[in-house]
Design brief:
The chain is an alpha+beta fold. 27% of the residues lie in helices and 26% in strands. The structure holds zinc ion (2 copies). The site of one zinc ion (ZN) has 8 residues, from loops. One zinc ion binds next to loops.
Length: 371
């Protein structure tokens, strides 16, 4: 057998760069692929030779050895094999790496796997704080109860090898220059067809249904938290793997608190006398215990009081966030005649130093006018 030069086989010059070698190989491999020639032995030999040439020339070390010693560099027992057993490893793996790219990706996966499902779940702050077990109703394809997912009418085997794909589950088809491999449309990748299908599911092994599911929602979840429940999605075709169920958490509004991560925030109006004289307020804690906050004398609107560790639970962690009260000083709108009189008396005693911010503001305003 005549041994062609590797460069000649690929139709490139000895100075060709890697990209040129790869491009030449690809177009030749496509042209000589055995699938296109129904196993014609002549073409198959040529295909092997092209692969062998490419295996050497794509590797800089092997290519350098080939340039110096020719094929002798790779002949075992020739005493010149610089790579030993790792030198040349046939073409089967080259075949898969090159042609893997051309395969229909859906053929690679199990086409019969059930779809993933989404479930939107509304939760209260209390539930998110403690974590909770929720029973949810999932409306989806479920494993057929009549045939237990087998798809058969009776208890005996009711399948035979698929004629379309010869039991392989995959078919190859020519698409322009490409040989595309895809899941068999007749058996949907199973390699066999049902001869006596279940009346309930028509041989699919699954049917529309509703099922109740108890799911554990951990403490600390928030708006947008996604919980994956493996295997609780749509049932697969004839006993194939089920998809997964994804629970998307949504938070109901709370009458008092808003939430920023683990921080609970309350906009908290306090009366002007409490703000002026100091005092305390009590907020309902998310854990059911009241949270007492001390109001210091002279607190202003917009100031924040923080109570550490009285906030939300930490998701997948320990401890709690903080509770923050944002103070809004409330001016009285309904006063008795007596209260008004007392306030008038208070005003009569004012010197302007009671409220330094307003004193300073109006002083600046006067300066501006006068200056
Ligand atoms: Zn088939
Ligand atoms: Zn069935």
């Amino acid at each position: 057998m005549v041994e062609h030069d590797y460069y000649d086989l690929l139709g490139v010059g000895r100075g060709a760069d890697d990209a040129a070698i790869k491009a030449a190989y690809r177009s030749l491999a496509k042209e000589h692929h055995p699938d296109r020639h129904n196993g014609c032995s002549n073409k198959e030999a040529q295909f092997k030779a092209i692969n062998e040439a490419y295996d050497v020339l794509k590797d800089p070390q092997k290519r350098a050895a080939y340039d110096r010693f020719g094929r002798a560099a790779f002949q075992n027992g020739g005493g010149q094999d610089p790579f030993g057993d790792a030198g040349f490893n046939g073409f089967s793996d080259i075949f898969s790496t090159i042609f893997g790219e051309f395969m229909d990706p859906r053929a690679q996966q199990n086409a019969a796997r059930g779809a993933d499902l989404r479930y939107d779940l509304e939760m209260s702050f209390d539930e998110a704080f403690t974590g909770v077990e929720k029973t949810i109703a999932v409306q989806a394809m479920a494993t057929c109860e009549k045939c237990d997912g087998r798809g058969c009418n009776g208890l005996d085997r009711c399948t035979s090898a698929c004629q379309t794909c010869g039991g392989m589950g995959k078919v190859r088809a020519q698409q322009g220059f490409f040989v595309v491999e895809r899941g068999c449309p007749t058996c949907r990748g199973a390699g066999e067809v049902i001869t006596d299908p279940c009346a309930n599911c028509h041989g699919e092994g699954r049917a529309h249904g509703q099922r109740k599911l108890a799911v554990q929602i951990p403490a600390g979840v928030d708006e947008g938290t996604r919980i994956r429940v493996a295997g609780e999605g749509e049932a697969g075709v004839r006993g194939a793997a089920s998809g997964d169920l994804y629970i998307f958490v949504h938070m109901k509004r709370h009458p008092i608190y808003a939430r920023e991560g683990t921080t609970l925030i309350a906009d908290c109006p306090v009366s002007f006398t409490t703000a002026a004289l100091g005092g305390s307020i009590s907020l309902p804690g998310i854990d059911g215990k009241p949270v007492e906050l001390k109001i210091p004398t002279g607190i202003q609107s917009g100031e924040q009081l923080r109570h550490r560790g009285a906030g939300m639970s930490v998701l997948n962690g320990r401890g709690r966030g903080d509770l923050v009260a944002r103070i809004l000083v409330e001016t009285p709108t309904r006063m008795s005649a007596k209260q008004k009189k007392l306030l008038e008396e208070f005003r009569g005693t004012e010197t302007g130093d009671e409220c330094p911010a307003s004193k300073s503001f109006f002083a600046r305003a006067r300066d501006f006018l006068g200056g």
